[in-house]
Amino acid sequence: MTKKLFLFFAFCSTFFVSAQYTTVINSNRPGFSESPYSVGSGIYQFETSLFFRKASATPTFSNPQALGLNLLFRTSFFSEKLEFNVNTTLQNDKIAFKNIFESSFKKTGLSKFTLGAKYLVYTPKYSDKKKEIRSWKARHSFDHKRWIPHIGVYAGVNFGSFLTDYHEKGGISTKVGLLLQNEISDKLYVITNLYYDNIGSDFSEYSYIITGTYNYNDYWSGFAELQGTFEKYQNKTNIGVGAAYLYNENLQFNATLRGTLQQKEVGIYTGVGVSYRLNRHEDKFIELDEFGNKIEEQKPVRYDENKGFFGRFFSKVKGLFKKKNKQTVIIKDGDKEEEITIKKPKRERSKSLIDVIVKEDIKEKKKTTKAEKKAAKREKKKAEKDIKNKEKERLKLEKNIKKEEEKEIKRKEKERLKLEKNIKKEEENEAKRKEKERLKLEKEIKKLEEDLKKEEEKEQKKDN
């Protein structure tokens, strides 16, 4: 049902609305280029980036290092094709003067403040290759109409009176631009911007930006960009690459890394940023009848609206005593009469096709949500039951392991005691054996001593 509703709305929108609104955020970041498309009515979009730039100091006053925060606010309300934006930058600059010695000082303030508007002038129509079923080659061949770009124009006003003196370029000046976008394929886009900036001041400049963006999937995209600026006294060039991640339909994160070239000095530029939008967009649809004519709601007719005060008053008082919705009918069957009260038929306006589709869609959604809730409850109960069973098994296993460990400890303790007892017995036996040997040895020594004494006595007798 949702699919039918979407197809119906898409069919109506092709006839009546040239919409710029997209279901997901459409951000210009992390590149410096601008798409010719607006954000769409009811959208309030903020695109911010925190950047750091560093290069070598030149002999004159230069700005070799800067740290800043850029904010681009975009919205659209008069027309889907028209967008208004504010582009401003708060920046901390290092101003350097290089001679025999190098000196510098720092300044903090606004370096840019521009109010601008852009309008989508032309949108090419590409061939729908999906409808080509007769030839595989024709279905997969390149559509040369894709070389025709989407065209938008830009006009803006620069306010330099409240910028820092280093970035002030003649107070109020104008800026115009041509915005082009080529959709090479469903994933590859090339954006080209041509600008003439600071018109009417001594610092007028021409610039171009060429950006190629490739969408890897629904979340990640990468880009490569080349920018050149031509001023009266100097030219600037930067080449950069970066990536963007779509967190959800209203939030995007991005990062970029660039190399810069200014007055033959090479530098580096890096930045990270966030793009966020407040979505207050509401689609407007025109209801058609079966012949393609616009259906207009009929206003209720009041028959007493041209009456005076008393006429309207008495008509309302009389209306209190009227039976508006009921009618009494007498039915005769021979001699019998029966009164039946019936409701008068009401004249109802035929229901809108959109209302019918929406109601059926709501019913189906309720059914699916109920079934999903029941399935979720069952899954939850099953998961809880599985968790309880696993917990029981775990406790049982821990109990068995503990019992086995206790048994093993007791067995080892018994073996230890038995071993100690055996060792003690062996030590006692060994001690007894050694004691016997000692006593025996003492007896033998005593006997030997007695024998020696006897021999000495005999020798003494012989000498006497």
Describe the protein's architecture and organization:
With 464 residues, the chain is an alpha+beta fold. Among the domains are: 250 residues, monomeric porin ompg (Porin, Beta Barrel); 74 residues. The chain contains 4 helices and 14 strands. The strands form 2 sheets. Strands 1-2-3-4-5-6-7-8-9-10-11-12 form a 12-stranded antiparallel β-barrel. A two-stranded antiparallel sheet has the order 13-14. The radius of gyration is 48 Å and the shape is flat.
Any guess at the CATH architecture of the domain at 18-126 and 139-279?
Answer: Beta Barrel
Which term fits the overall shape?
A: flat
Alpha-carbon Rg, integer: 48 Å
Level of helix content? 25-40%
**How many E-type strands?**
14
As residue ranges, the low-confidence spans are: 1-19
Main sheet: which strands, in order across? 1-2-3-4-5-6-7-8-9-10-11-12
Assign the CATH topology of the domain at 18-126 and 139-279.
Porin
Q: What is the chain-wise order of helices and strands?
A: HEEEEHEEEEEEEEHEEH
Per CATH, the class of the domain at 18-126 and 139-279 reads Mainly Beta
> Averaged pLDDT, please?
82
Which secondary-structure class do the elements indicate? alpha+beta
Please report which band the strand proportion falls in: under 5%, 5-15%, 15-25%, 25-35%, 35-45% or over 45%.
35-45%
